[in-house]
Amino acid sequence: MPKIKISIVILILVIIFLVSLCLGPRVINPLSLDDLEKEIMLSIRLPRFVVAVLMGMALGASGAVLQGILRNPLADPYILGISSGASLTAAFGLISGSYFLGKYTIPLTAFIGAAIVSMIVSAFGWKRGGLWPERLLLAGVGLSFLFQAVLMLLISTSTDEGMRRAVLWIFGDLSIADWSLIPYGFVLVILGLGISISRSKALNALILGDEFAHSLGFSVYKERVLLFLSVVLMTSASVSLGGIIGFIGLLMPHIVRFFIGSDNRFLIPASALCGGAFLCVADLIGKLIMPPAEIPSGIITAIIGSPYFLYLLRRKDVLNL
Amino acid sequence: MSSTYNHTILQLDNVTFQYPSDKTFITHLTFSVGNGEFIGLLGANGSGKSTILKLASGIFKPSEGSVRLWGKPLHFYKNKDRAKLLCYLPQLLDINVPFTVREVVSMGLYPYDIHPEMSADEAIEIVGLKEKSGSYITNLSGGERRRTFIAMTLLQGAGLLLLDEPLANLDIKYQIEILRLLGELKEKKNISIIMALHDINIALQFEKVMLIKDGKILGAGNPGIVLTKDLLKEAFDVNIAVKKNDSGGAYISYGNNF
After folding, report:
1. Hey, are the CB atoms on A205 and B97 less than 8 Å from each other?
2. Crossing angle for the helix pair B172-189 and B142-156, nearest 10 degrees?
3. Do A73 and B97 touch (CB under 8 A)?
4. To the nearest 10°, the Cα dihedral for A266, A50, A235, A1?
5. Distance separating alpha carbons of residues B178 and B126, to the nearest angstrom
6. Interface test mutation site (partner B, options A66, A216, A264, A271, max chain B beta carbons within 10 A)
7. CA of A185: how far to CAs of A41, A76, A190, A250, A295, in Å?
8. Which residue in chain A has the smallest CA separation from B90?
């Protein structure tokens, strides 16, 4: 049954793909393209769609994985401080105007920040030869506060233009998407997704508890490190592709759980697909709602997603919060 | 101790274990479990029953001594191979993710690529949860939850079951049912079981008990012989005695404790 539902999501994703290519400030008929329209398609809409799908997939899947390994329904990819660390380093690059690596400045600084913070968080979470969920969580929350404070300090002391760019980026700005970022983002997201899906049985067992996971034949510490690595890969890639987009990582796994259950063998791929599809729709709405201005996708995802989630919460009594 | 059995399945030899930042808890513990033995591990709270089961299952590693499964050191086994031979059911079943009963029970098949014998639905039926196989485990009572995990254990199909207080929170009906079921399994498949418990009346139903205090074995053997007034006093720090009723059954006399 979950396989049928996942197939339906893939179909919906294809439809969204076609619609988001056609719609925008200029409506394009894909069957009769002139040169300008071809250029818009290939240089603007297609890369933006791919970035939205990759980010949404990364956030949805890593949210599902983190809620499992931390055994906490409130976990999301940003709770470990990875994204706030990435934001800090990237915003520092943006605000200081030091485009020392050209267009790669933002993604690269963000990725470096994410990687460094992952190492710091795992160092704090490491004890007696393994990663401990509670320690990871508390270290992540603590570091997040610190990074956010420094980020706010940077923004509040910067010039207006720098601040506007930083704020836009922090709320998830897909307008910077172009083909140059996609290959490495694609590799990281697919790698992270591959690891997490291949470890999904272990994740199910870890949710029952470490002792169950051991009894069912999994190496608890190894599995947790692999799953954490998958989250780091996906979150870092996502933050560096388009900033921070809220809601998807936290709530998409819960929404998907309402429909297909908690088995991570289905939950992870379905959260990834739904996350990708949802971010595409949010981006499309952000572009269309008051052209030529664009509303950052992070705002749209939260405005649409949160009420829907609350509606589901009222209707279906499965969330054990 | 296991002379009436063909093979020793599990052998703990001179095992010493220490919790981090704590004094040594278990010192030089030695015992073995034979093929088809059903042993009750009896002791007060904090006596070391769970620790012994965790050492036997490889969750804890002894600082000295060895744990052998079928004659081979436990840590030499690959995780999946060990899981096919040995299954540990923890005492605490604290799960906050809404898995269905069937999803949880099916996890018993994880060590296997293809499972030959029992299906998840059969295991669920055995523990009397057929009607609830689609229910969320988070919505079940404590006893139903425990039966769900016992079904998972059955499905895992290991020849040695290490069960930590599997009868806790169960109605008397299901206590009897689970004990009967495990007894049947032992007879049919010759599996070995060690079950931690602290209910002496239940321990009296076993053919063999090990009485534990402070990580040491006070006595092991037939409950009629082991559970003397003096040893029970030492293990539980209370004056109680095992009495026989008219029909030959044994029960606990609380004496003048009330």
Report:
1. no
2. 10
3. yes
4. -10
5. 9
6. A216
7. 20, 20, 8, 21, 23
8. A211
Q: Which residue carries 């003096």 as its tokens?
A: B230
Q: What is the secondary structure of A48-72 as a DSSP string? A: HHHHHHHHHHHHHHHHHHHHHHTT-
> Does a cis peptide bond (omega within 30 degrees of 0) precede residue A292?
yes
User: pTM for the whole thing?
Assistant: 0.87
Residues in chain A: 321
CA distance B131 to B202: 28
Express each pLDDT in A67-115 by its tens digit: 998 888 888 887 888 888 888 887 777 776 666 666 677 777 877 888 8
B96 and A219 in contact by Cβ < 8 A? no
Domain locations in chain B? 8-90+160-182+191-253
Interface residue of B54, B74, B79 to substitute, partner A, most A CBs within 10 Å = B79
Here the ipTM equals 0.89
pLDDT at B19 > cutoff 90: no
**pLDDT tens-digit profile of B92-151?**
878 888 899 999 999 999 988 876 677 888 889 888 888 988 999 888 888 888 889 989
Inter-chain CB proximity B110 and A217 less than 8 Å = yes
Nearest residue to A54 (alpha-carbon basis) of A268, A243, A256, A276 = A276
Give the whole-angstrom CA distance, residue A124 versus residue A121: 5
Q: Which residues in chain A are contacts of B136 at CB distance < 8 A?
A: 318, 320
Q: Are A71 and B96 in contact, with CB atoms under 8 Å apart?
A: yes
The third-level CATH classification (topology) of the domain covering B8-90+160-182+191-253 is Rossmann fold (3.40.50)
In CATH terms, is domain A59-315 a member of 1.10.3470.10? yes
Three-class secondary structure of residue B40 per DSSP: strand
Chain B nearest C-alpha distance from A320 (Å) = 6
Number of neighbours of residue A187 by Cβ within 10 angstroms: 12
- Chain B residues with CB inside 8 Å of A204's CB? 99, 103, 107, 110
pLDDT digits (tens, 9 = 90+) for B159-217: 899 999 988 877 888 888 888 888 887 888 788 999 998 888 888 888 899 999 888 88
Q: Give the gap in angstroms from C-alpha B228 to the nearest C-alpha of chain A.
A: 34
| B30 in Cβ contact with B10 (< 8 Å) | no
Amino acid A318: pLDDT: 47
Interface residues from chain A to B (CB-CB < 8 Å): 67-68, 71, 73, 128, 201, 204-205, 207-212, 214-219, 257, 261-263, 318-320
Give the number of A-B residue pairs with CB atoms closer than 8 Å: 84
Contact between B81 and B241 (Cβ < 8 Å): no
